[in-house]
């Protein structure tokens, strides 16, 4: 089956204000309002609207940057950018936001004598437009670098509207980078020159320009998702995505997202949260490889997924490295590795973790080589490094993702076969059992994030506990953690009671009005990925 990564960017060629297949009423109404506001502010019609959704990770936390597969889905909360080419010269982009909290800006790219570009991104003092600059830089680097005599990009006017909560763990920053990338591609007639997979890779690199070592899940989910399905995304040996339908039956289920209202700023806390975890997994991988007698180059930054692959002898050059036989081999390898980690890294289990000196000694590298390999990419801050607990979480979480996917596929295939053969609908009991197993995996994932990866917080733990008390089938933190949101699997006919229970008992919600509550607790189903709307009934300036 063709991976969505090889497909072209999704384009909707529409009459402004018309409906789009798969688009929710929430998104459609915001799109219409955005066009009207663009005309009001700029005096002419937008030619394009770039849309990139946020995402909720259903399961698979902090394992994408270790190259293990994850299972997120896009949500209908998104970033919309209305845009049109303008008469502004030298590729200058005038950017405004519908939210008055975010000031307007002019992005002024400067082409250097080397042929590369500078957009003055100050990672020590990021603003909301830093992410748009990062996206612009990626488009410039891909299509406009080289001779100083090459064509320059078109100037344009952008108006941004966002409904993804910032700092909520729903990938608002990735959505902004993806939507901005699409807007720049659109106004320069480059949409047809890049595939969805290439856009994922470009967006990953773009976000690194603001100082975050992104693993790729956020960008892939925003770009590659289809409605009605989760998305199993694997990153090894190369990017691959496949649709994974969530079991549906009677009673129906929905995913409920609840914002803890504790802001998790991935960039500002990266040195002792996100980026620190990345370094811990890198070092754990090298030590594990050494203890498994796996050859690793002196300057090779091997990932945990690569360690497993070499240990079980995967044929990464096979014609179908993502086929079901390969997935079965991966699952068996993970089951074996979980116990192996206990024996090879388990000494860290009861100790206080590794000191920097301990880690250097365990890798077999010199101090200079260690620091160059693991500590030169970005700053981290810690006195102790918990390599066993991080590796244990990664391998067990990767196994949970495969188990989650297996349950979904089994029930999807069963339902399809029943339809084809005209069998009576007797699958609801099996689907309810499947939903219970999915919920149990979500609960296990949250517990692991809390106790092994240390990426939860009291607020997230309280929300997860309340969700279970309120009848959630399963509940877990979603996103990087340390604040942000939880996601819970809930029976649809129980939704109102579920929401009421949480609202009455989670203290930060008690002071909110109905409008405020709608922003912090809402249900969602898998939604379509990023796309560009071409508004054919408009005129440009």
Topology:
Layout: E1 10-14, H1 25-42, E2 48-59, E3 71-85, E4 93-97, E5 105-107, E6 110-111, E7 117-118, H2 128-143, E8 156-162, H3 172-187, H4 196-208, H5 217-224, E9 230-234, E10 240-244, E11 253-259, H6 274-291, H7 304-312, H8 324-345, H9 347-350, H10 356-363, H11 367-374, H12 387-421, H13 428-451, H14 458-469, E12 474-478, E13 485-491, H15 495-505, H16 514-520, E14 521-524, E15 531-535
Parallel strand pairs: 1-15, 4-8
Antiparallel strand pairs: 2-3, 2-15, 3-8, 4-5, 6-7, 9-10, 11-13, 11-14, 12-13
Helix pairs in contact: 2-3, 2-4, 3-4, 4-5, 6-12, 7-8, 8-12, 12-13
Q: Could you estimate the helical fraction of the residues in percent?
A: 40-55%
Assembly state = single chain
- Name the strands of the widest sheet in spatial order: 1-15-2-3-8-4-5
Structural category = alpha+beta
Any low-confidence stretches, pLDDT <50, length ≥5? none
Number of strands: 15
Helical stretch count?
Answer: 16
Q: What is the global morphology?
A: globular
Distance between the termini: 43 Å
Major sheet summary line: 7 strands, mixed
């Amino acid at each position: 089956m063709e991976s969505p990564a090889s497909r072209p960017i999704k384009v909707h060629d529409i009459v402004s204000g018309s409906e789009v297949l798969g688009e929710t009423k929430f998104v459609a109404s915001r799109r219409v309002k955005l066009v009207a506001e663009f005309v009001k502010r700029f005096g002419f019609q937008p030619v394009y609207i770039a849309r990139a959704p946020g995402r909720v990770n259903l399961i698979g936390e902090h394992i994408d940057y270790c190259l293990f597969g994850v299972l997120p889905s896009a949500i209908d909360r998104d970033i919309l950018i209305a845009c049109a080419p303008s008469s502004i010269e030298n590729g200058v982009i005038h950017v405004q936001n519908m939210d008055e909290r975010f000031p307007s800006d002019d992005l002024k790219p400067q082409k250097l004598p080397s042929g590369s570009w500078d957009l003055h991104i100050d990672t020590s003092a990021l603003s909301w437009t830093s992410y748009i600059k990062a996206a612009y830089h990626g488009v410039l680097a891909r299509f406009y670098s080289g001779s100083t005599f090459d064509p320059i990009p078109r100037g344009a006017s952008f108006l941004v509207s966002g409904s993804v909560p910032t700092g909520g763990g729903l990938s608002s920053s990735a959505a902004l980078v993806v939507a901005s990338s699409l807007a720049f591609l659109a106004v320069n007639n480059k949409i047809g020159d890049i595939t969805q997979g290439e856009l994922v890779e470009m967006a990953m690199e773009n976000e690194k320009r603001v100082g975050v070592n992104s693993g790729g899940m956020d960008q892939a989910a925003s770009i590659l998702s289809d409605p009605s399905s989760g998305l199993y995304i694997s990153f090894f040996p190369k990017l691959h995505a496949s649709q994974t339908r969530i079991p549906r039956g009677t009673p129906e289920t929905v995913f409920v997202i609840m914002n803890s209202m504790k802001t998790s700023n991935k960039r500002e806390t990266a040195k002792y949260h996100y980026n620190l975890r990345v370094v811990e997994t890198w070092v754990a991988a090298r030590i594990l490889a050494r203890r498994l007698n796996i050859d690793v180059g002196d300057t090779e930054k091997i990932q945990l997924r690569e360690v497993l692959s070499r240990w079980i002898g995967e044929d990464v050059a096979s014609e179908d490295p993502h086929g079901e036989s390969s997935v079965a081999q991966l699952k068996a390898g993970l089951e074996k590795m979980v116990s192996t980690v206990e024996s090879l890294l388990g000494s860290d289990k009861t100790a206080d973790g590794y000191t920097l000196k301990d880690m250097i000694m365990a890798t077999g590298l010199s101090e200079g080589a260690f620091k160059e390999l693991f500590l030169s990419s970005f700053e981290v801050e810690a006195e102790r490094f918990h390599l066993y607990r991080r590796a244990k979480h990664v391998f067990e979480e990767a196994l949970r993702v495969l188990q989650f996917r297996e349950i979904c596929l089994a029930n999807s295939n069963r339902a399809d076969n029943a339809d084809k053969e005209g069998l009576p609908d007797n699958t609801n009991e099996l689907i309810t059992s499947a939903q219970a197993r999915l919920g149990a995996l979500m609960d296990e994932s949250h517990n692991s994030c809390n106790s092994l990866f240390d990426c939860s917080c009291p607020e997230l733990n309280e929300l997860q506990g309340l969700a279970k008390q309120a009848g959630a089938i399963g509940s877990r933190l979603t996103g990087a953690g340390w604040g942000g949101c939880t996601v819970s699997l809930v029976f649809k006919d129980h939704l109102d009671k579920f929401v009421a229970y949480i609202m009455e008992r989670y203290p930060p919600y008690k002071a909110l009005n109905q409008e405020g509550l709608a922003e912090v607790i809402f249900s969602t189903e898998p939604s379509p990925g990023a796309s560009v709307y071409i508004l054919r009934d408009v005129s440009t300036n």
